[in-house]
């Protein structure tokens, strides 16, 4: 089981899964056994503040042998030891899940519109399946966040935020149930938008002050509806906070700083990132790098800086699913992060020079010396239909 701890709680016999927060610039190896108090002290000296330990890999210091963790539930242990599914096999499952997610989201929005109750077991069960897919191979659903049907923004945005939060929660070492709740809150966070008139919701130009007031009402519409359901109050709180900002200038309550829950802050980051990178009917989404710089410019005054930094770390400089232009004038989709943040594993699929699709080919840029990423790319700059590419990719897989 992955568990977040502060440096003062790090003891010999623990297995460090990941360094979460660190002062200073010294690079610290992120994984390994803490075989002595001296190692724990050295990490503290290097400025490590919080970290994630894997309790399943705890070991006896005297023998150095792994010690089974009696607290970890058996099913969870088995799940964590399961080998990572291949991207191709998980893509097939994730594609079905993606379609199912949009269908459930559509039903939910319809229930909210008609003020009818919904069976909460359906979206809850769906969120659990989504987290399971992320556990098997996080890259499959992340790739699918790039599929955008121009008229389905509302459906896809909530689904994407749920996917981003499942990854973010896992990255931070949150427990299975915490990640499921977080992802579930992402899936439900914008239900109130169905009550906003289309001409305001989809207005390409800047909203007037009056229109903005109507738009801001979506949080209350959603919460009013959810309060009538059996949804856990903690989740309702997280959802209610997705437009709150640390400086108190967010809405609807103007909640400040520490009064905004960690989950609410995480939802705010994932919500903004997806909104910035999404293609809309009237404009193309921005690159992940541009979106990251906007998130960073909103921190620490409005967004939680350590969480923004962790989110960027979780997504990677070139996030899975994003497009990159390679030095050989070919376009590729990032399909997996490697230990080299600037050299991910990619699927090459398009020749810019000849303006035609290629037979998809995987390249690990970390071990390929002759090709590197020239820059991040946006499909619309090359008039590429990413959806068509995906259909091809999934059918090949
Ligand atoms: Fe919202």
UniProtKB/TrEMBL annotation:
<dbReference type="InterPro" id="IPR006675">
    <property type="entry name" value="HDIG_dom"/>
</dbReference>
<feature type="domain" description="HD-GYP">
    <location>
        <begin position="132"/>
        <end position="327"/>
    </location>
</feature>
<dbReference type="InterPro" id="IPR021812">
    <property type="entry name" value="DUF3391"/>
</dbReference>
<feature type="compositionally biased region" description="Basic and acidic residues">
    <location>
        <begin position="67"/>
        <end position="83"/>
    </location>
</feature>
<dbReference type="InterPro" id="IPR003607">
    <property type="entry name" value="HD/PDEase_dom"/>
</dbReference>
<feature type="region of interest" description="Disordered">
    <location>
        <begin position="60"/>
        <end position="85"/>
    </location>
</feature>
<protein>
    <submittedName>
        <fullName>Metal dependent phosphohydrolase</fullName>
    </submittedName>
</protein>
<dbReference type="Pfam" id="PF11871">
    <property type="entry name" value="DUF3391"/>
</dbReference>
<dbReference type="Pfam" id="PF13487">
    <property type="entry name" value="HD_5"/>
</dbReference>
<dbReference type="GO" id="GO:0008081">
    <property type="term" value="F:phosphoric diester hydrolase activity"/>
</dbReference>
<dbReference type="InterPro" id="IPR037522">
    <property type="entry name" value="HD_GYP_dom"/>
</dbReference>
